[in-house]
Amino acid sequence: MSKAKTSKNPLMDSIIALCKRRGFIFQSSEIYGGYNGFFDFGPLGVELKKNLKEAWWKDMVHCRDDIEGLDSSIIMSPKIWVASGHVGGFSDPMVDCKTSKMRYRADQLFFAPVIVDGNTIGYVSVLEDSSMQAVAEETADKMKRKQGVQGTLAPIELKDYTEADPSEYELIPSPATGEPGSLTPPRDFNLMFETKVGALSDSTATAYLRPETAQGIFANYKNIVDTGRVKIPFGIAQVGKAFRNEITPRNFIFRSREFEQMEMEYFISPEADWQGCHREWIDWCKDWLVSVGLPADMLGEDVHPLEKLSHYSRGTTDITFKFPFGEQELWGIACRGNFDLTQHQEHSGKSMEIFDQESKSKFIPHVVEPALGVDRLLLAVLTAAYTEDEIGGEKRTLMKFHPRVAPYKVAVFPLLKNKPELMEKAQDLYKKLQRKYNVFWDTAGAIGRRYRRMDEIGTPWCVTVDFDTLEDGTFTLRDRDTTEQKRINEEELLAMLDAQLY
RNA sequence: GCGGGUAUAGUUUAGUGGUAGAACUCCAGUCUUCCAAACUGGUUGCGACAGUUCGAUUCUGUCUACCCGCACCA
Question: How far is the CA of A44 from the CAs of A254, A265, A432, A483, in angstroms?
């Protein structure tokens, strides 16, 4: 009877509904039934997103003397992705067990034939583990005894599943069931989108949509060093789209296939205290997140254990955020050593060394990389801002955006729209403010309704022109969070906005 | 990718083998001197494609999207 949606995340549902209702975020290609993993940003969403990117750029590039900006192309030479390891390493062959429905990474699933006096009596399989050799030997011994085979057990030589011969797929037992025959061949999940460049569609034309903006920075590192604008330590920052063919996009815009990154590579001497530098950047990033409206108590740190680090990393700490669906990675701060530049030096044959005047030495610098997903940040900001409260017994939904990132900074209303003198006065103010800020104009309905509308899209202030305005030039300034109203003149209004919207 | 669930207007929802009603929202108008007022009118919907049928939003199948769990997330 009841077909109540069984969503266990009403907060997430409310945020998604508001995003659609008010024009923040739409599902991509909605009129054709949607397209999994892609999103469109509506009139409000594009403003919010732009404000976040501009705030980042201002604080990261303009307000720092040691960081330069860059905008590299999305499609670059495929050689870049070979050098970076993405062509080889970005694809993880996966194995599914058809019986248990378990899924394994093929390079973490090990197997070996059990050989007695030269005869293969079966196979054993184990998952990657420090004790896997011992477990495999024990299992092989049991198999030998169970089958009653006499003879000498040959040493167990474990290989991972990617090295298995196709004829062996049917013989290797699933680690889940212990029975052979249920494992699929290793299947590729290459997370890079491929495309073709040029008229010819042969394999030499294959190119990739970048899965991260970082490689564009490394590929231009030499250009920027050669323009002589920088000396160690320095950073290069970039904002741009990136693409990953995620197997399972989930959680609204948290994991999507097309997304935007704000990345910065901070180049330091190999002799420098990289751990100290890492810590400084973690703190800088946390402070910045607070400055755009994320409460400090919703942030956390997740230090990646050494054994789980990526191939390029010497240390990674994620700044996490308490999303409605759990505490998840927001901003990854990775120490990439000199892996990337060394790779590019080897593959391109061009020197990536820099001469440091201070130490009179030449070296390939190491990097600390703070990488932030714009869309994840946007979702975090939406989550932190979403508030329900009660005003005079009426429920109210409001988005408590930091004024700095709010899509509209201020709204201007004539108290009554059928009074031309109020309309005219309000238009004057609206036009004046519009030159400097994104301002919302609304004449429809009762004044209270207009206030609530602004609450729902997070406009921090509303200014109402009434009959007193015509007499003494003061307006009603109404505050979104407190709903307090006070009289203020134009000069005071401009000064207040200037002070609040740095 | 696997399993389970869901799909009617912008939102929340009625309902039917004979092409759908409501509330709120939205738009227009009347009115309105500061927190979703009132009145009048209006726009908008059966996720898509097939099949069964005289006729399908309803029954069947396929697909798509969303939600939950598992797996995955260099």
Answer: 18, 31, 22, 22
